[in-house]
Amino acid sequence: MGLTLREALKSEDRFISECLKIRAKNRAIIPLRAKPAQQRVLLAIRRMRQAGKPPRVIIVKARQVGVSTVIEAAMFRRCQFTPHRESIVLAHRVESATKIFQIPKLFYDKQPARLRALYPKLSDSRRRIAWKNGSTLSIEVAGEVRGLTAQDIHFSEFAYYRDPETVFKAAMQAVPDIPDSLVAIESTANGAGLFQDLYWEAKAGKNGFTPIFIAWYDDETYVAEPDFTEDEITAEEQELRARHGLSLAQLAWRRNTIRQKCKGDVGVFRTEYPSDEREAFSASGSPVFEYEVRRAYAIMSQETAQPERSEPEIAKTQANPQGEPRLVTTPEGRCWQYAPARDGGSYFMGIDSAEGIIGGDPSAIVLLNGHTLDVDLVWHGLAKPEVLAWYAYVIGWLYGWAKANPETNNQGLLTTREMQRLGYPNLYRRQKRLEGETRDDSDLVGWYTSPKTRPMLFGAAREYVNSQAGRILHRGLVEELDNPHFETSAWGRVVRTPRGKHDDLICALGLAVIALKGDAEGELRPIQPGSLLPTRTRARIYHRAENRPLPAPMTFDELDAQAELVARSQRRLREHT
């Protein structure tokens, strides 16, 4: 053996590359030379240990890039050289567990004879290797794992577990939170679910896991002899090449794989061999919005220069002595105006409210042009519900009292009541039959989201997006289109958004579409221009007809202070009830 025992104990990389063997795709037995993608996994684990942290990695990957193999190698080495260590691999089905077991079995059988003599095994039956030093490496089928204890756990193809929540919670209790441990979660994507939740939470730094994405082109063996020239590259291939620096040989492998392994379906290729992490999740499972449409909107928004950011304002200033509502340009603004109000235009506004606290969900306002069906304005950020009503008031006033459809659940009820108190003259009223209840008409302002009406809300947004009814240039809204997926639950087929991801802009878009259609089941079509008064004139006439003056101009500092007083009184009320 060229490698000494001391060197094998000291160097993980040398032990893996010089002592362990694998079965190649052509069935030949070859040394395990860690490829760059595999080295990234080992390096991430090593860095966490060096930092004194328990190594926790979550890996989204393309098919057959060797992630399971390198994780088994790291666990095998620690079991063999460390007495009384327990390592467990959880596979998603029996056939996979049997196949995975062949990896460490081959490691042991084909390692140098001297190491086998120094570290003899007791048995390797029933998908379990047991060493005489008391260590074990077991491959189990993910299921009931309570009562287990282990220093290392590898969740293999986690996205395909039948009950990932139960398995994950129970298995994590078995692993000590020390640097000399390992939890590795790896899988190809499978739409929405716990795996997607954990990955995006890791990206946001919220769960202690290090996220790793391994694309198909990260595997250096995924190449083929091109049978086409540079001039014959498709537009999609040209885009991939520009984004990821792909060679002709890699594009040739992609073409061959789509043709031979994916039955010519590029959608299947994107699921099994994603090019980036967004594609991994958005192309797999049952996404609400069609992939090609999302991709088209993404290209459109990226190629369009974004407008200067602004904020709604209603205050008397030297530049605005009458205190009329307006948008003020500011680098910290949360409003993107893609088209100004046009005289004679008809506009529709969806308002999705949140609590407005730091670390909480943002609120959103999306404004649709009824004639072009374009998204002409987006407001997105943190705001107390009452203050959000003022923002909506300003935007609605600027766009000729756009028909406003606020969601009336939870915090949205505060926004709705404040808009009514301000005398907003054009609020959407929902149909009683949608809720199956007998409320007074005055209580049916806005949209109430329930298990029954939530599919209608997302259905409205889905109809708009999948039909590409109008332009969407706001990048945040376009990015959100990747998040929601369909799932089956006790309520039937429901829409689910992964933890750590948002759908507030999508909800606001759906609310605006419903306001435009007049009903969740109405027809989505442009409004024909009519003989309407100029926008600003209509704004003033609405108030005059209702005998309501424009609200007293207030600074936004005053608005924030007013909203804080309201929030404080609500907290006191809750404390005494």
Task: Explain how this protein is built.
By secondary structure, the protein is an alpha/beta fold. Helix 16 (454-466) crosses helix 18. The radius of gyration is 29 Å and the shape is elongated. The chain is built from 20 helices and 19 strands.
Strand order, largest beta sheet = 5-6-7-4-8-9-3-10
Q: Helicity, in percent?
A: 25-40%
Number of helices: 20
Distance between the termini: 77 Å
Q: How many β strands by DSSP?
A: 19
Summary tags:
577 residues, alpha/beta, 7-stranded mixed beta sheet, 20 helices, 19 strands, elongated
Give the helices and strands, then pairings.
Elements: H1 5-10, H2 12-19, E1 21-23, E2 29-31, H3 36-50, E3 56-61, H4 67-81, E4 86-91, H5 94-110, H6 113-118, E5 121-123, E6 128-131, E7 136-141, E8 152-156, H7 164-172, E9 182-187, H8 194-203, E10 210-214, H9 235-244, H10 248-260, H11 266-272, H12 277-282, H13 291-303, E11 309-313, E12 326-329, E13 335-337, E14 347-352, E15 363-369, E16 375-381, H14 385-398, E17 403-406, H15 411-421, H16 454-466, H17 475-480, E18 485-489, E19 492-496, H18 504-517, H19 535-545, H20 556-575
Parallel strand pairs: 3-9, 3-10, 4-7, 4-8, 8-9, 14-17
Antiparallel strand pairs: 1-2, 5-6, 6-7, 11-12, 11-13, 13-16, 14-15, 15-16, 18-19
Produce a short descriptive summary.
This protein has 577 residues and is α/β, with parallel strands linked by helices. It has helices at residues 5-10, 12-19, 36-50, 67-81, 94-110, 113-118, 164-172, 194-203, 235-244, 248-260, 266-272, 277-282, 291-303, 385-398, 411-421, 454-466, 475-480, 504-517, 535-545, 556-575; strands spanning 21-23, 29-31, 56-61, 86-91, 121-123, 128-131, 136-141, 152-156, 182-187, 210-214, 309-313, 326-329, 335-337, 347-352, 363-369, 375-381, 403-406, 485-489, 492-496. The chain starts with a helix and ends with a helix.
